[in-house]
């Protein structure tokens, strides 16, 4: 799994847990629908840290909370 895929899966999991829609996340971040779709579908090869920070803040989390997940600890995580 790539880092982009891991970030995408983590965001989707949090959205479900918080019962938040992608639309609400887009509204809270100011990120366009097209860009958010590309981000959540891991179409970008690398994750832009600025975008990740905007999303994490909109989710009401800290960066540490976001990355404190086993998905980011995998030895098989592919760094592009």
Question: What is shown here, in short?
Answer:
The chain is mainly alpha-helical. It is built from five helices and no strands. The protein is globular, with a radius of gyration of 12 Å.
Describe this structure in words.
This protein has five helices and no strands. The longest helix has 15 residues, at 3-17. 57% of the residues lie in helices and 0% in strands. The chain has a single domain (3-72), classed as 434 Repressor (Amino-terminal Domain) (Orthogonal Bundle), CATH 1.10.260. It has helices at residues 3-17, 22-29, 33-40, 49-58, 63-67. The model has no long low-confidence stretch (mean pLDDT 92). It has 80 residues and is mainly α.
